Amino acid sequence: MLIVCCSEISDPNWRWIADHLSEKDVRFEFIDCCPRNWVERQFKFLNLARLRGSLEAVLKAKGKNAAILVSHGPTLAAWCGIFARVIFLRSALMAHSFNFVELPNSLKTQIFSIGLSRVDRFVVFSKIEITVYALKFHIPESRFSFVHWGVRRPATGGASSRPIGYVSAIGGNARDYGTLIEAARLLPDIPFVLVVRPSSLEGMVVPANVTVHINLSLEATINVLFESRFMVLPLNSSEVPCGHVTIVAAMHLGRTMIVTASTGIADYVKDGENALTVPVASTSDLVQAIARLWLDDSLRQSLEKNSLRFATAQCTEENIAQHFLQQMALLRMERR
């Protein structure tokens, strides 16, 4: 059975879950939707690479009679859906990793809805997204399926000594670094290390106890997280479905965290069990939580133990592969 998979991952060695299904009657072919030439690199407004890659994936799925075309991310899902309608593709469409940092405006929503109406299954990493996206794009909730974000344990530079450590914060999607910077200013004796995007701290005065790295490599970023005493994930909303990648990475590394309470991460973070949560944009609550976790070794170790247990049980590539097999079987039954 052939599965065509299109994504914006340029690494030629990326095989998604193919290795976990090598003993099954499943074969993958991958299409990357990254710029391949000068024209695709220059015309960013239309993102020609996405258009080309989506069309290439749909044509390959039709030419080789693929059972399923899997797209990663909402934009590729929409384009694959549009092209699938144009060329009358018979293959099932699965929109995996379906997640919006911000919902599109009304015009884009109408365009997205045309393509997404052709998609047979949407895989999301938080349950709240099912309700949000079904309502936004007029899609039956029955087409959605939830699974925890799953990855292998991130590679690190070795064993962490963490003799003193620091508080880490990494990532850029839907972050509220303003509140974290103010909290750090009120905790001058605690060191912080941030890995952010160039725009993340615009207009902010960074206190002396905060070290900032811009756009570090993935390996270096993971090591910053691994060497920290714990992580803070400050989100800019109580509903935003972002931060899953960072949360699961921290859990696999045995690091607990302080996270903004959000329905978008409620499937992963349990206050007092594997993390501490604080209200959105509350500097005072964040200061109290950081000070508490910095000083209370017993609490931190308990949260770390539970975080690692949760990630090992729920957030693995094996779980993603098994979920994919289940959805593939359901799609075949539905399309008979």
UniProtKB/TrEMBL annotation:
Could you list the residue ranges forming a coiled coil in this record? none
Which SUPFAM superfamilies does UniProt cross-reference here?
Answer: UDP-Glycosyltransferase/glycogen phosphorylase
What Gene3D superfamilies does the record point to? Glycogen Phosphorylase B
| Domain of life assignment | Bacteria
Per UniProt, the keywords (alphabetical) are: Transferase
Molecular function (GO) terms for this protein are: glycosyltransferase activity
- UniProt-listed CDD domains: GT4_PimA-like
Identify this protein by name.
Glycosyltransferase involved in cell wall bisynthesis
